[in-house]
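Hi R.,

Here are the chain sequences for the assembly we discussed:
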Amino acid sequence: MAGSIAAQPPVTTRTGGRARRWLPWLLLRTGGVLFVLWAVATITFFAIRLIPGDPAEAVLGGPGSQASEEALAQARREYGLDRPLILQYLGYLGRLLTGDLGRSYSLRAPVAEVIGENLGGTLLLALLSLAAAAVIALGLAAWSARGGKGASGVSSVLEIVGAAVPHFWLAISLILLFSTWLGWLPPVSVPGPAGLVLPVLTLAIPLAGFLGQVMRESILDAMASPFVLAARARGEGEGGVFWRHAARHAALPAIGLAGWAFGALISGAVVVESIFARPGLGRSLLAAVQLRDVPLVIGIVLVVALGYMLVTTLTDLADRLADPRLRRAGR
Amino acid sequence: MNRLALPLLSAAAVALLLAGCSTAAPTNSEPVSGGTLVYASGDGEPTCLDPHVGGNYPQALVATQYLESLVSKNKDGEIIPWLATSWKEADDGLSWVFTLRDDVTFTDGTPLTWEAVAANIAHLQDPATASSTGYLALQKVTGVEKVDEHSAKVLLSAPDSALLDSLSQPWLAIESPTALKRSQEVNCESPVGTGPFEVTAWDRQQSITLERNKDYDSPPADAGHKGPAYLKKIVWRFLPDSASRYAALRAGTVDVIDNVQPDTIVAAEKDDTIDHLDAPRPGASNRIELNSGKAPFDDERVREAFIRSADVDDAVKSLFFGTAKRSYSALSSVEKLGYSDKSLFDYDQKAAATLLDEAGWTEKDAEGYRVKDGTRLELDFPVSTNQSIPAEQSLFEQIQATAKQAGFKVDLHPLDLSSWYGALAKNDYNLVSAPYTKVGPDVLRILYHSDGTIPAPSGYFANLAQLKDPKLDALLVQASETSDQDERAALYKQAQQIVLEGYYILPLYDQQNHFLYRADVKGIRALPTVSTPTFYDAWLDR
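And here is the predicted structure of the full complex:
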């Protein structure tokens, strides 16, 4: 459907027909998104309220701050925590419908504001990590394609190891190597690009491991397929064969992984932002869950869910751009 | 993230990389003015920089740099002048007159007068402030009256021998009465005090910026110098991960770190560029409470059997590498009135077995656990993974293992803080370890007076041993109202004997509070009140 726009110049006389075809798709897609957001908000709300812990204490500086009876009662009144859970849920949902994400208990600030302040940091981290992962994965794939069996074996091992290491272990190892030992990079986030290198590598390496495994397989397949032989026969150089034909072939499975990669980057951000002390959604989410800061948890989870759905939609579109067959089939 | 594996892995790696790395810096004998100190805290970031609101340790740590109290304590535990130059208790004990310094101004220009004392006490007692620690400490205070411009009379409902101790705490620091009139949101962001530094910026999740108060001249009586602080600026950061915190210290990205783990302390001892500050917190020791409010610990013999079966000494030695000293007291070693009795806690499996036999736990099941009337001798032990450091969690596992030899089945439940409080509120525990920081022996009243078994609306109660003893209650109340020092000491001794000899608690060690700092930072010391480091005397030798 999206492909049909790209493939054809807009023709005024056909606009009405296209709108009629687009409308149900748009409604369905929007309805789906709204349903998912509602389900996410509901599940998160009840999940966090049903585990033990008192959100009123978050208002008073967290559990263990020895809050007095009066202070707790005041906090409960102020945030409506003394009402039955179902009323609190409906109230929250009602405000959510008007676009109001509520106020964070622990940060005493509007949730939208907290998310606004932290979104940039996490997005920057995620995008740079994605880019770094793609570069590493493509590099390994290119090396495997041209370097023969030895190169292929080595990169295969590197990818498996990369994909298997947990973020926290990788982060500490990178800190020890590049900061404590070599003294090249700051061990925790500092303003400027130097502070970003280790966090980005920590997120990028496991992702590159996964992407690389998938891409290398399809590149090696492609390099052995008749269309590559045909390209070579036409006199295409090795670089041209790789980038114009094989790499494009390998992009498909990688794009298919994008939705999963987004999830992996966000969950990785929780760990990485904590270890490197970077401000961001992941670190806020961790603190919010520990404090039972319900509005902030739901707010962040909603934003992540929305981002996830956005990425899947973009993946659909990107698939069509990379693969002309889908465009034709879509007509 | 695995909180246990991380420090262990990193410690191993750090140890490998540590070989040969020391520089000899030139040493100045005269303090140098200027420079920025970066402090990296492992605690959660406070939600409010005014320690009146809520009132926890992370707030106390940072507020020590910009707020000051009426009185302080010296190393010998004696109350010394700070914002108040002198004080006098009325003969009936129902009021205290505090004479204030007449030359102190808050950083917003407001002068320090009796009204500041009145406004701060009112602020702490106002439910809208949501103070917990400060509020509890002022329970007997009914009001403040003017004596003259620089003297305030604090009125009490009953004599309070803990009043000076209470007022020395950062949670009861004196803030500008003008600033307190602002909204809580603003006051949380930029509290105004009389301290050597002032809060100039708070970039949440990044850092708090404190800048030198140029007009400062009101240090406590035991400070190292007079006049403004040497440091120009302090940047206060939050680095939750202990391994990266230590790496940042070694790399020089930060100058001071807190919440240092035993393995890191040992590693740092080999490093000449890093120094160690050990500042045990006042109040209660770290101890395991035995819930005497329900079976099987409602039987004193079973409590003693458990304590005899726990080999704490060896475990502390092997897990804390000599960084923590075993305690046999309910109180911290910094509390002068602490009473300890080692003989009550000797490890003795035979005695444990005899006691369990006497208590009727005579049978054993296939796994070797004791059984009585078809019930297994099973103990629930919720462990807060936020409050118990990895070494302490390992210690609990060792206790679990030695108690098993006597036939106890100890079930350790590692829980996050909220779930842990939830388990306590539901009385789902037989054993628990809960730290409690407060200046002075009055902490015993909070922890072991029977009033402490009555839950707050949150369900939380401080008397986790569920100790209900009218004789102990009477001793604790009498001690809190006695200003005669010898009599007070005798009363607290009797009270502590009841707690220890009734086998209600298993003391472990002081509440650990370790800091590491770069050796070229000079003049760091911990205030003897709640052991928070002050950077007033600190300067950079670089």
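Residues 111-164 of chain A form the longest helix (54 residues). Confidence is low (pLDDT under 50) at residues 1-15 of chain A.

Let me know if anything looks off.

Best,
T.
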